[in-house]
Protein backbone atom coordinates (compact mmCIF):
# COMPACT_ATOMS: atom_id res chain seq x y z
CA UNK A 1 0.00 0.00 0.00
CA UNK A 2 1.39 3.39 -0.99
CA UNK A 3 1.48 6.10 1.69
CA UNK A 4 -0.74 9.12 1.07
CA UNK A 5 0.38 12.71 1.58
CA UNK A 6 -1.46 16.00 1.89
CA UNK A 7 -1.52 18.11 -1.25
CA UNK A 8 1.96 19.45 -2.01
CA UNK A 9 2.50 23.12 -1.45
CA UNK A 10 4.00 25.09 -4.33
CA UNK A 11 6.23 27.83 -2.99
CA UNK A 12 7.98 30.43 -5.14
CA UNK A 13 11.01 31.82 -3.33
CA UNK A 14 13.98 33.94 -4.24
CA UNK A 15 17.39 32.35 -4.38
CA UNK A 16 20.44 33.99 -2.83
CA UNK A 17 23.48 32.24 -4.27
CA UNK A 18 26.67 31.76 -2.29
CA UNK A 19 28.30 30.23 -5.35
CA UNK A 20 29.98 33.09 -7.19
CA UNK A 21 30.26 31.20 -10.43
CA UNK A 22 26.57 30.32 -10.58
CA UNK A 23 25.61 33.94 -9.96
CA UNK A 24 28.14 35.97 -11.92
CA UNK A 25 28.51 34.22 -15.26
CA UNK A 26 25.10 35.01 -16.71
CA UNK A 27 26.46 37.33 -19.39
CA UNK A 28 23.96 39.19 -21.53
CA UNK A 29 24.06 41.32 -24.62
CA UNK A 30 24.77 44.31 -22.35
CA UNK A 31 28.14 42.98 -21.23
CA UNK A 32 30.59 45.88 -20.66
CA UNK A 33 33.58 46.24 -22.95
CA UNK A 34 35.95 45.02 -20.23
CA UNK A 35 35.44 41.61 -18.63
CA UNK A 36 37.74 40.32 -15.89
CA UNK A 37 37.89 36.58 -15.20
CA UNK A 38 39.45 36.64 -11.75
CA UNK A 39 41.19 34.22 -9.34
CA UNK A 40 41.52 31.48 -11.97
CA UNK A 41 44.29 29.11 -12.91
CA UNK A 42 45.48 30.26 -16.35
CA UNK A 43 47.06 27.75 -18.74
CA UNK A 44 48.89 30.44 -20.69
CA UNK A 45 50.50 27.98 -23.10
CA UNK A 46 51.77 24.39 -22.92
CA UNK A 47 54.07 24.12 -19.92
CA UNK A 48 53.31 27.61 -18.65
CA UNK A 49 50.59 28.35 -16.13
CA UNK A 50 49.69 31.11 -13.68
CA UNK A 51 47.72 30.42 -10.50
CA UNK A 52 45.20 32.77 -8.90
CA UNK A 53 45.36 35.27 -11.75
CA UNK A 54 43.02 37.39 -13.85
CA UNK A 55 42.38 37.34 -17.58
CA UNK A 56 41.17 40.73 -18.80
CA UNK A 57 39.11 40.70 -22.00
CA UNK A 58 38.29 43.74 -24.09
CA UNK A 59 35.62 43.11 -26.72
CA UNK A 60 36.73 39.94 -28.54
CA UNK A 61 40.41 39.90 -27.55
CA UNK A 62 42.58 39.30 -24.53
CA UNK A 63 43.77 42.66 -23.24
CA UNK A 64 45.96 41.66 -20.30
CA UNK A 65 47.06 38.82 -18.03
CA UNK A 66 47.10 40.13 -14.45
CA UNK A 67 48.97 38.16 -11.81
CA UNK A 68 47.89 40.17 -8.74
CA UNK A 69 44.15 40.36 -9.51
CA UNK A 70 44.24 44.17 -9.47
CA UNK A 71 41.73 44.98 -12.18
CA UNK A 72 40.22 48.16 -13.62
CA UNK A 73 37.24 49.51 -11.70
CA UNK A 74 35.05 49.59 -14.82
CA UNK A 75 35.56 45.90 -15.63
CA UNK A 76 32.74 43.39 -15.24
CA UNK A 77 34.10 40.83 -12.78
CA UNK A 78 33.54 37.07 -12.84
CA UNK A 79 35.10 35.16 -9.95
CA UNK A 80 36.51 31.87 -11.26
CA UNK A 81 38.16 30.69 -8.08
CA UNK A 82 38.60 26.92 -8.41
CA UNK A 83 38.35 26.95 -12.21
CA UNK A 84 40.97 26.59 -14.95
CA UNK A 85 41.07 28.64 -18.16
CA UNK A 86 42.62 27.01 -21.23
CA UNK A 87 43.18 28.58 -24.65
CA UNK A 88 40.43 27.54 -27.05
CA UNK A 89 41.25 24.39 -29.01
CA UNK A 90 41.79 24.37 -32.79
CA UNK A 91 40.93 21.60 -35.27
CA UNK A 92 43.25 22.01 -38.29
CA UNK A 93 41.43 19.56 -40.58
CA UNK A 94 37.69 20.01 -41.08
CA UNK A 95 34.99 20.51 -43.66
CA UNK A 96 32.86 23.05 -41.82
CA UNK A 97 30.91 26.20 -42.59
CA UNK A 98 31.17 26.15 -46.39
CA UNK A 99 28.02 26.92 -48.35
CA UNK A 100 29.06 25.16 -51.53
CA UNK A 101 27.46 22.55 -53.74
CA UNK A 102 28.55 20.89 -56.96
CA UNK A 103 26.32 19.79 -59.80
CA UNK A 104 27.41 16.40 -61.03
CA UNK A 105 26.37 15.66 -64.60
CA UNK A 106 25.73 12.07 -65.64
CA UNK A 107 28.23 11.19 -68.35
CA UNK A 108 28.33 7.84 -70.10
CA UNK A 109 31.39 6.16 -71.51
CA UNK A 110 35.05 7.01 -70.96
CA UNK A 111 35.78 10.73 -70.51
CA UNK A 112 39.24 11.83 -71.56
CA UNK A 113 38.67 15.57 -71.76
CA UNK A 114 36.21 17.98 -70.20
CA UNK A 115 35.18 21.50 -71.10
CA UNK A 116 35.45 23.31 -67.75
CA UNK A 117 33.83 26.64 -67.02
CA UNK A 118 36.36 29.42 -66.58
CA UNK A 119 40.12 29.60 -67.08
CA UNK A 120 40.89 26.69 -64.79
CA UNK A 121 42.86 23.44 -65.05
CA UNK A 122 42.07 21.00 -67.83
CA UNK A 123 41.74 18.11 -65.38
CA UNK A 124 38.57 17.91 -63.30
CA UNK A 125 40.45 16.73 -60.20
CA UNK A 126 42.37 20.02 -59.94
CA UNK A 127 40.58 22.74 -57.97
CA UNK A 128 43.63 24.74 -56.90
CA UNK A 129 41.83 27.96 -57.85
CA UNK A 130 39.27 27.57 -55.06
CA UNK A 131 39.64 29.97 -52.14
CA UNK A 132 37.23 28.66 -49.56
CA UNK A 133 36.82 31.90 -47.64
CA UNK A 134 34.40 32.92 -50.40
CA UNK A 135 31.94 30.25 -49.25
CA UNK A 136 32.05 30.69 -45.46
CA UNK A 137 28.71 30.63 -43.63
CA UNK A 138 28.29 29.82 -39.93
CA UNK A 139 26.49 26.57 -39.12
CA UNK A 140 25.41 26.62 -35.47
CA UNK A 141 24.29 22.99 -35.31
CA UNK A 142 27.45 21.62 -36.93
CA UNK A 143 29.66 23.90 -34.80
CA UNK A 144 28.23 22.43 -31.60
CA UNK A 145 30.02 19.13 -32.36
CA UNK A 146 33.32 20.95 -31.90
CA UNK A 147 32.32 23.50 -29.26
CA UNK A 148 31.09 20.81 -26.86
CA UNK A 149 34.67 19.47 -26.78
CA UNK A 150 36.29 22.87 -26.27
CA UNK A 151 37.14 23.70 -29.89
CA UNK A 152 36.73 27.34 -30.82
CA UNK A 153 38.13 27.45 -34.37
CA UNK A 154 38.85 25.14 -37.31
CA UNK A 155 40.69 25.07 -40.60
CA UNK A 156 38.24 24.16 -43.32
CA UNK A 157 38.18 23.19 -47.00
CA UNK A 158 35.91 21.29 -49.36
CA UNK A 159 37.48 17.84 -49.41
CA UNK A 160 37.13 16.87 -53.05
CA UNK A 161 39.76 16.29 -55.70
CA UNK A 162 43.54 16.05 -55.83
CA UNK A 163 44.29 19.78 -55.59
CA UNK A 164 41.47 20.99 -53.34
CA UNK A 165 42.10 24.71 -53.12
CA UNK A 166 43.24 26.98 -50.31
CA UNK A 167 41.69 26.41 -46.90
CA UNK A 168 40.23 29.01 -44.56
CA UNK A 169 40.73 29.17 -40.79
CA UNK A 170 37.67 30.47 -38.99
CA UNK A 171 35.91 30.82 -35.67
CA UNK A 172 33.05 28.52 -34.66
CA UNK A 173 31.04 31.50 -33.38
CA UNK A 174 27.53 32.05 -34.71
CA UNK A 175 28.25 35.35 -36.44
CA UNK A 176 28.38 36.77 -39.94
CA UNK A 177 31.17 35.54 -42.18
CA UNK A 178 33.23 38.73 -41.99
CA UNK A 179 33.63 38.28 -38.24
CA UNK A 180 34.44 34.57 -38.43
CA UNK A 181 37.49 34.46 -40.67
CA UNK A 182 40.87 34.34 -38.90
CA UNK A 183 42.93 33.53 -42.00
CA UNK A 184 41.25 33.74 -45.42
CA UNK A 185 44.07 31.81 -47.08
CA UNK A 186 45.65 29.24 -44.80
CA UNK A 187 47.08 26.08 -46.42
CA UNK A 188 46.67 24.32 -49.74
CA UNK A 189 44.75 21.04 -49.46
CA UNK A 190 45.72 17.94 -51.46
CA UNK A 191 45.02 14.20 -51.76
CA UNK A 192 45.62 11.23 -54.05
CA UNK A 193 41.85 10.72 -54.47
CA UNK A 194 40.47 12.46 -57.57
CA UNK A 195 37.06 12.84 -55.93
CA UNK A 196 34.01 13.25 -58.16
CA UNK A 197 35.88 14.27 -61.31
CA UNK A 198 34.13 12.68 -64.33
CA UNK A 199 37.42 12.21 -66.17
CA UNK A 200 38.93 8.77 -66.39
CA UNK A 201 42.41 10.12 -65.71
CA UNK A 202 43.84 9.57 -63.22
CA UNK A 203 42.43 6.14 -62.50
CA UNK A 204 45.30 4.81 -60.39
CA UNK A 205 47.62 5.89 -57.61
CA UNK A 206 50.47 6.10 -60.11
CA UNK A 207 48.35 8.38 -62.27
CA UNK A 208 47.54 10.64 -59.31
CA UNK A 209 51.22 10.99 -58.44
CA UNK A 210 52.06 11.76 -62.08
CA UNK A 211 49.30 14.39 -62.25
CA UNK A 212 50.55 16.06 -59.06
CA UNK A 213 54.13 16.22 -60.31
CA UNK A 214 53.07 17.55 -63.72
CA UNK A 215 50.76 20.17 -62.20
CA UNK A 216 53.43 21.45 -59.81
CA UNK A 217 55.92 21.59 -62.68
CA UNK A 218 53.42 23.45 -64.87
CA UNK A 219 52.66 25.89 -62.04
CA UNK A 220 56.35 26.60 -61.55
CA UNK A 221 56.87 27.23 -65.29
CA UNK A 222 53.68 29.31 -65.56
CA UNK A 223 54.46 31.64 -62.68
CA UNK A 224 58.12 32.09 -63.60
CA UNK A 225 57.31 32.99 -67.20
CA UNK A 226 54.46 35.26 -66.18
CA UNK A 227 56.87 37.24 -64.00
CA UNK A 228 59.45 37.40 -66.80
CA UNK A 229 56.88 38.67 -69.29
CA UNK A 230 55.52 41.35 -66.97
CA UNK A 231 56.24 44.77 -68.48
CA UNK A 232 58.11 43.37 -71.49
CA UNK A 233 56.62 43.71 -74.95
CA UNK A 234 59.06 41.22 -76.49
CA UNK A 235 57.86 38.30 -74.35
CA UNK A 236 54.51 36.58 -74.53
CA UNK A 237 52.80 35.91 -71.23
CA UNK A 238 51.45 32.36 -70.74
CA UNK A 239 47.74 31.94 -71.36
CA UNK A 240 45.84 32.68 -68.17
CA UNK A 241 45.21 29.72 -65.85
CA UNK A 242 43.91 30.61 -62.40
CA UNK A 243 44.56 27.12 -60.98
CA UNK A 244 48.27 27.31 -61.85
CA UNK A 245 48.45 30.90 -60.66
CA UNK A 246 47.05 30.00 -57.23
CA UNK A 247 49.83 27.43 -56.79
CA UNK A 248 52.57 30.07 -56.97
CA UNK A 249 52.96 30.12 -53.17
CA UNK A 250 52.49 26.45 -52.32
CA UNK A 251 56.08 26.12 -51.11
CA UNK A 252 55.74 28.99 -48.65
CA UNK A 253 52.08 28.46 -47.71
CA UNK A 254 52.44 24.70 -47.29
CA UNK A 255 50.06 21.87 -48.13
CA UNK A 256 47.92 19.58 -46.00
CA UNK A 257 47.77 16.15 -47.60
CA UNK A 258 44.85 13.82 -46.90
CA UNK A 259 46.25 10.30 -46.64
CA UNK A 260 44.09 7.35 -45.65
CA UNK A 261 46.71 4.65 -45.06
CA UNK A 262 50.31 4.37 -43.94
CA UNK A 263 51.83 3.57 -47.34
CA UNK A 264 50.17 6.56 -48.99
CA UNK A 265 51.22 8.73 -46.08
CA UNK A 266 54.86 7.89 -46.75
CA UNK A 267 54.36 8.42 -50.49
CA UNK A 268 52.87 11.85 -49.85
CA UNK A 269 55.69 12.77 -47.47
CA UNK A 270 58.30 11.81 -50.05
CA UNK A 271 56.48 13.56 -52.90
CA UNK A 272 56.06 16.85 -51.04
CA UNK A 273 59.63 16.77 -49.73
CA UNK A 274 60.99 16.28 -53.24
CA UNK A 275 58.99 19.33 -54.34
CA UNK A 276 60.44 21.33 -51.40
CA UNK A 277 57.01 21.56 -49.73
CA UNK A 278 56.70 21.01 -45.97
CA UNK A 279 54.66 17.80 -45.51
CA UNK A 280 51.61 18.38 -43.29
CA UNK A 281 49.89 15.01 -43.30
CA UNK A 282 46.53 13.78 -42.08
CA UNK A 283 47.33 10.78 -39.91
CA UNK A 284 45.85 7.30 -40.00
CA UNK A 285 46.65 6.01 -36.50
CA UNK A 286 49.35 3.57 -37.59
CA UNK A 287 52.34 5.90 -37.72
CA UNK A 288 53.99 4.01 -34.85
CA UNK A 289 54.64 1.09 -37.24
CA UNK A 290 57.00 3.04 -39.54
CA UNK A 291 58.06 5.98 -37.44
CA UNK A 292 61.72 5.81 -38.54
CA UNK A 293 60.75 6.22 -42.19
CA UNK A 294 58.46 9.12 -41.36
CA UNK A 295 61.24 10.90 -39.49
CA UNK A 296 63.29 11.13 -42.69
CA UNK A 297 60.79 13.61 -44.16
CA UNK A 298 60.29 15.72 -41.01
CA UNK A 299 56.52 15.86 -41.40
CA UNK A 300 53.91 17.64 -39.32
CA UNK A 301 51.02 15.31 -38.50
CA UNK A 302 47.33 15.92 -37.87
CA UNK A 303 46.18 12.90 -35.90
CA UNK A 304 42.59 11.68 -35.68
CA UNK A 305 41.98 9.67 -32.52
CA UNK A 306 40.40 6.86 -34.52
CA UNK A 307 41.35 3.99 -32.24
CA UNK A 308 39.81 0.66 -33.25
CA UNK A 309 37.14 -1.04 -31.20
CA UNK A 310 38.12 -4.12 -29.23
CA UNK A 311 38.09 -7.25 -31.44
CA UNK A 312 35.33 -9.78 -30.83
CA UNK A 313 37.03 -12.62 -28.96
CA UNK A 314 34.15 -13.66 -26.74
CA UNK A 315 34.46 -17.29 -27.79
CA UNK A 316 37.15 -19.50 -29.30
CA UNK A 317 35.68 -19.48 -32.81
CA UNK A 318 35.67 -15.68 -32.98
CA UNK A 319 39.11 -15.46 -31.41
CA UNK A 320 40.64 -17.71 -34.09
CA UNK A 321 39.29 -15.45 -36.85
CA UNK A 322 40.96 -12.28 -35.52
CA UNK A 323 44.35 -11.73 -37.21
CA UNK A 324 47.33 -11.03 -35.00
CA UNK A 325 47.93 -7.68 -36.74
CA UNK A 326 44.41 -6.59 -35.72
CA UNK A 327 45.10 -7.43 -32.09
CA UNK A 328 48.44 -5.64 -32.21
CA UNK A 329 46.94 -2.50 -33.71
CA UNK A 330 44.11 -2.48 -31.16
CA UNK A 331 46.71 -2.67 -28.39
CA UNK A 332 49.13 -0.10 -29.82
CA UNK A 333 46.82 2.49 -31.40
CA UNK A 334 46.27 4.54 -28.18
CA UNK A 335 50.06 4.88 -27.80
CA UNK A 336 50.48 6.34 -31.31
CA UNK A 337 50.55 10.01 -30.15
CA UNK A 338 53.05 9.16 -27.40
CA UNK A 339 55.32 7.42 -29.92
CA UNK A 340 55.23 10.49 -32.18
CA UNK A 341 56.11 12.72 -29.23
CA UNK A 342 58.99 10.45 -28.19
CA UNK A 343 60.39 10.68 -31.73
CA UNK A 344 60.04 14.48 -31.94
CA UNK A 345 57.43 14.43 -34.70
CA UNK A 346 55.12 17.43 -34.12
CA UNK A 347 51.39 16.77 -34.30
CA UNK A 348 47.97 18.19 -33.57
CA UNK A 349 44.61 16.50 -33.06
CA UNK A 350 41.49 16.51 -35.21
CA UNK A 351 37.94 15.24 -34.79
CA UNK A 352 37.80 14.38 -38.48
CA UNK A 353 36.32 10.97 -39.22
CA UNK A 354 35.07 10.21 -35.71
CA UNK A 355 32.08 10.73 -33.46
CA UNK A 356 32.69 13.94 -31.52
CA UNK A 357 31.37 12.30 -28.34
CA UNK A 358 34.30 9.87 -28.44
CA UNK A 359 36.96 12.58 -28.62
CA UNK A 360 37.72 13.11 -24.92
CA UNK A 361 37.43 9.44 -23.91
CA UNK A 362 39.94 8.56 -26.63
CA UNK A 363 42.26 11.43 -25.78
CA UNK A 364 42.32 10.19 -22.19
CA UNK A 365 43.13 6.71 -23.52
CA UNK A 366 46.14 8.25 -25.29
CA UNK A 367 47.20 9.88 -22.01
CA UNK A 368 46.93 6.57 -20.19
CA UNK A 369 49.07 5.04 -22.95
CA UNK A 370 51.97 7.40 -22.27
CA UNK A 371 51.16 10.80 -23.79
CA UNK A 372 52.01 13.61 -21.38
CA UNK A 373 49.56 16.42 -20.62
CA UNK A 374 51.81 19.23 -21.86
CA UNK A 375 52.16 17.63 -25.30
CA UNK A 376 48.42 16.92 -25.40
CA UNK A 377 47.65 20.58 -24.69
CA UNK A 378 50.11 21.65 -27.38
CA UNK A 379 48.39 19.32 -29.87
CA UNK A 380 45.10 21.09 -29.15
CA UNK A 381 46.47 24.64 -29.10
CA UNK A 382 49.90 25.82 -30.29
CA UNK A 383 50.63 22.97 -32.72
CA UNK A 384 47.08 23.02 -34.08
CA UNK A 385 47.18 26.81 -34.50
CA UNK A 386 50.46 26.54 -36.41
CA UNK A 387 49.04 23.85 -38.71
CA UNK A 388 46.04 26.12 -39.38
CA UNK A 389 48.25 29.15 -40.03
CA UNK A 390 46.75 31.22 -37.21
CA UNK A 391 49.29 30.87 -34.40
CA UNK A 392 49.49 34.67 -34.21
CA UNK A 393 45.81 34.84 -33.16
CA UNK A 394 44.87 31.74 -31.18
CA UNK A 395 46.38 28.92 -29.15
CA UNK A 396 47.65 30.97 -26.18
CA UNK A 397 46.34 33.18 -23.40
CA UNK A 398 48.27 36.32 -24.26
CA UNK A 399 47.52 40.00 -24.94
CA UNK A 400 46.26 40.56 -28.47
CA UNK A 401 45.09 36.98 -28.95
CA UNK A 402 41.42 36.22 -29.56
CA UNK A 403 39.32 35.68 -26.44
CA UNK A 404 38.68 32.05 -27.40
CA UNK A 405 38.69 30.19 -24.10
CA UNK A 406 37.77 26.94 -22.41
CA UNK A 407 36.75 27.14 -18.75
CA UNK A 408 36.96 23.86 -16.88
CA UNK A 409 36.35 22.51 -13.42
CA UNK A 410 39.34 20.33 -12.63
CA UNK A 411 42.03 19.00 -14.95
CA UNK A 412 40.56 18.28 -18.38
CA UNK A 413 43.23 15.69 -19.09
CA UNK A 414 42.21 13.64 -16.07
CA UNK A 415 38.62 13.88 -14.89
CA UNK A 416 37.82 17.58 -15.31
CA UNK A 417 34.75 18.88 -17.10
CA UNK A 418 34.20 21.75 -19.52
CA UNK A 419 31.97 24.35 -17.89
CA UNK A 420 31.83 26.90 -20.69
CA UNK A 421 33.47 27.87 -23.96
CA UNK A 422 34.13 31.47 -24.96
CA UNK A 423 34.02 32.36 -28.64
CA UNK A 424 35.45 35.79 -29.45
CA UNK A 425 34.74 37.01 -25.93
CA UNK A 426 31.21 35.61 -25.69
CA UNK A 427 30.37 32.72 -23.38
CA UNK A 428 28.53 29.52 -24.26
CA UNK A 429 27.74 27.27 -21.32
CA UNK A 430 28.34 23.58 -21.97
CA UNK A 431 27.33 21.75 -18.82
CA UNK A 432 23.89 20.30 -18.30
CA UNK A 433 21.65 22.35 -15.96
CA UNK A 434 22.41 19.99 -13.08
CA UNK A 435 26.05 21.06 -13.14
CA UNK A 436 25.18 24.75 -13.01
CA UNK A 437 23.26 24.35 -9.74
CA UNK A 438 26.13 22.84 -7.74
CA UNK A 439 27.01 24.88 -4.68
CA UNK A 440 25.76 26.29 -1.38
CA UNK A 441 22.72 28.54 -1.05
CA UNK A 442 20.76 30.27 1.72
CA UNK A 443 16.95 30.04 1.52
CA UNK A 444 14.63 32.49 3.25
CA UNK A 445 11.29 30.77 3.75
CA UNK A 446 8.81 32.71 5.84
CA UNK A 447 10.63 33.09 9.17
CA UNK A 448 12.99 30.21 8.43
CA UNK A 449 16.56 30.42 7.19
CA UNK A 450 17.73 27.15 5.66
CA UNK A 451 21.04 26.12 4.08
CA UNK A 452 20.75 24.33 0.75
CA UNK A 453 23.61 22.09 -0.42
CA UNK A 454 23.57 20.71 -3.98
CA UNK A 455 26.14 18.23 -5.29
CA UNK A 456 26.56 15.79 -8.15
CA UNK A 457 27.01 12.10 -7.52
CA UNK A 458 30.35 10.59 -8.53
CA UNK A 459 28.77 7.64 -10.32
CA UNK A 460 27.84 8.04 -13.98
CA UNK A 461 25.41 9.16 -15.13
CA UNK A 462 26.00 11.93 -12.60
CA UNK A 463 22.84 13.16 -10.89
CA UNK A 464 22.04 16.13 -8.71
CA UNK A 465 21.54 15.39 -5.01
CA UNK A 466 21.01 17.75 -2.10
CA UNK A 467 19.72 18.50 1.35
CA UNK A 468 18.30 21.32 3.43
CA UNK A 469 19.77 21.94 6.85
CA UNK A 470 19.24 24.10 9.89
CA UNK A 471 21.77 23.63 12.63
CA UNK A 472 22.47 19.92 13.04
CA UNK A 473 19.27 18.78 11.32
CA UNK A 474 19.49 17.72 7.66
CA UNK A 475 16.61 16.87 5.35
CA UNK A 476 17.24 15.05 2.06
CA UNK A 477 15.65 16.42 -1.11
CA UNK A 478 13.52 14.24 -3.38
CA UNK A 479 12.34 14.45 -7.01
CA UNK A 480 14.99 17.00 -8.03
CA UNK A 481 14.46 18.57 -11.45
CA UNK A 482 16.58 21.34 -12.96
CA UNK A 483 16.93 23.47 -16.05
CA UNK A 484 19.08 26.53 -16.70
CA UNK A 485 16.79 28.88 -14.72
CA UNK A 486 14.68 26.74 -12.40
CA UNK A 487 15.20 24.07 -9.76
CA UNK A 488 12.36 22.15 -8.14
CA UNK A 489 12.28 19.45 -5.48
CA UNK A 490 10.12 17.88 -2.79
CA UNK A 491 11.04 18.00 0.88
CA UNK A 492 9.45 17.04 4.19
CA UNK A 493 9.61 20.18 6.37
CA UNK A 494 7.50 18.81 9.18
CA UNK A 495 10.45 19.17 11.55
CA UNK A 496 10.49 22.88 10.72
CA UNK A 497 6.83 23.30 11.56
CA UNK A 498 5.37 22.94 8.05
CA UNK A 499 3.05 19.97 7.77
CA UNK A 500 3.15 17.54 4.87
CA UNK A 501 5.37 17.31 1.81
CA UNK A 502 6.31 20.66 0.29
CA UNK A 503 7.20 21.17 -3.35
CA UNK A 504 9.65 24.05 -3.75
CA UNK A 505 10.51 25.83 -6.99
CA UNK A 506 13.58 28.07 -7.05
CA UNK A 507 14.23 30.63 -9.75
CA UNK A 508 17.71 31.86 -10.52
CA UNK A 509 17.91 35.55 -11.35
CA UNK A 510 20.05 36.84 -14.23
Automatic annotation (TrEMBL):
Task: Give the signal peptide, or none.
Answer: 1-22
The cross-references to SUPFAM superfamilies, in alphabetical order and at most eight, read: Composite domain of metallo-dependent hydrolases (SSF51338)
The question of whether Plastid is a record keyword is answered with no
Tell me which domain of life the UniProt entry assigns to the organism this sequence originates from.
Answer: Bacteria
Offer one example of a GO biological process linked to this entry.
Answer: guanine catabolic process
* Molecular-function GO terms, alphabetical: hydrolase activity, acting on carbon-nitrogen (but not peptide) bonds
**The entry's keywords:** Signal
In this protein, which residues make up the domain named Amidohydrolase-related?
A: 355-426
Q: Which Pfam families match?
A: Amidohydro_1
Protein name per its UniProtKB record: Imidazolonepropionase
Amino acid sequence: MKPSFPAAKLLFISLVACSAYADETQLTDNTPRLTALTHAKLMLSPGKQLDNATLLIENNRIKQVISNNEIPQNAYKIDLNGYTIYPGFIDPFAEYGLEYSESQATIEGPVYRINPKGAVAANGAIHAEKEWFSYVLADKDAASNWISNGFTSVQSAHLNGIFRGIGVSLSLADKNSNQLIYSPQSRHFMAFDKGNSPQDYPNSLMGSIALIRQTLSDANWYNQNKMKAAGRADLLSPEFNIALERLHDIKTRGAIFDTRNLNNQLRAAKLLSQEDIQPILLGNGQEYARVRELQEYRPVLILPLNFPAAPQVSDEDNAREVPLRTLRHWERAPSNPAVMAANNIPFSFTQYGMDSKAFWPRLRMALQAGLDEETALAALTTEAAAAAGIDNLVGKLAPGYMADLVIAKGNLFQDGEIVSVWLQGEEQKQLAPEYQWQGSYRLHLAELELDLELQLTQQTPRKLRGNLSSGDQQIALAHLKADSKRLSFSVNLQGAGINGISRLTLWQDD
